[in-house]
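Question (not urgent): is this output format expected?
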Amino acid sequence: MSNSQHPIEFTAPGMDNETAKKTIETLDNRLVSLLDLQLTLKHIHWNVVGPSFIGVHEMLDPQVDAIREMTDTIAERIATLGGTPQGTPKSIVDRRTWDEYSLGKAFVIEHLGALDKVYSGVNADHRNAISTLSELDPVSEDMITSQLGDLEQFQWFVRAHIESSAGKLDH
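Got this back:
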């Protein structure tokens, strides 16, 4: 059951329940996205092979840790606003609106090309959430804006591995 199906009994002082509900729905979408991303990053960490393996393998764990912190921050904000954060595997899959990451064991270049696309989707959706939250809740907007800065830097780290000297991405 998604957060939007639970009635809000209370929210942050100064925020009405309808605004809280819309904010929670936006944050819930970001929570699902980041929970999925952290699992995808660990999957890549375990299954990347080939040249530059160790550099990529070691690059991903700090990203997983940072994204785990982001999910905790979002879940706690949802609870603060009177919602019920959902993080079980089934709830993530049921609320996900994108396809499963399809690569298993694969070369660095393949995984990083696919991961760049994952980050593009996550980051674009974070940017859209910022726009939505700007009308609803400045605290949540600021939180997601801060996260986007880190997510964009992580994508840059990935792109540095797949960018040619001419500035083209090798997907």
